[in-house]
Amino acid sequence: MQSGNKLAGLGILTAISASLCCIAPIIALLVGTNGLISIFSGLDFLRPYLIGLTVLMLSFAWYQKLKLQKQAVCNCGDANERAPFLQTKAFLSIVTISVAIILAFPLYVHTFFQKTKKSTVVAEKTNLSSAEFTISGMTCSGCEEHINQKANNLTGIIHIAVSYKKGNAIVAYDNTKVTIEQIEQAIEKTGYSVTAKKEIK
Fold first, then answer.
1. Number of other CB atoms surrounding residue 38 within 10 Å
2. In sequence order, what DSSP letters do the residues of 15-43 get, joined into one string?
3. What is the pLDDT of residue 79?
4. What CA–CA distances, in Å, run from 62 to 49, 59, 118?
5. Residue 19 Cα distances to 23, 27, 67, 78, 199, angstroms
6. What average pLDDT does the structure give for the chain?
């Protein structure tokens, strides 16, 4: 049964690895190390393989557990002998549920970010500008929220809409308070790369 425990442990590790690209923005906000993001977002292409490996390991762990349990029923040994908790179905169930929660992390990562409300007032419409930034390295809604948080810290940002699916951010800002270059620098400080920028007329 030891191999089943090892498989369960490895299943948790591969599940964490599969969701690391979305866990990294949370770590970056807590610790302040944005360099992690560029490293882990580059590994996003491995996610489907890591998910498959996780499912395979857990399936085999369950197969071993159920097979050994069936054999134990047929054995003539002491029926009252209890297996250690780490070798029970309850433990394997906890591991399986934990892995499912970890693998689903990209679906709910945005809930970990505090919503920021901007109250920037533009004195004149002529001061209002918009720009689109093409950003590489975003993989989930956590990436969007991370960029939102950093950009909204700038004075003069009126509205920002970030999309990891489109790989861009559209920013409305007061050009007397902030420049397009300052916005680009704020985005890049999060660990993602601005590959292109253009003003929207």
1. 16
2. HHHHTHHHHHHHHHHHH--THHHHHHHTT
3. 47
4. 20, 5, 50
5. 6, 12, 31, 43, 34
6. 78
Q: What is the DSSP letter of 117?
A: -
Contact 127, 175 (CB under 8 A): yes
Query: What is the DSSP secondary structure assignment for residue 46, as one 8-state letter?
Result: G
Hey, is 172 helix, strand or coil?
A: strand
pLDDT band, very low/low/confident/very high, at 162 (cuts 50, 70, 90): very high
- The answer to pTM > 0.90 is no
Residue 1 has pLDDT above 50, yes or no: no
Nearest to 121 by CA among 155, 169, 148: 155
The residues near 33 (Cβ < 8 Å, ≥ 6 apart) are 27
State yes or no: pLDDT of 62 exceeds 90.
no
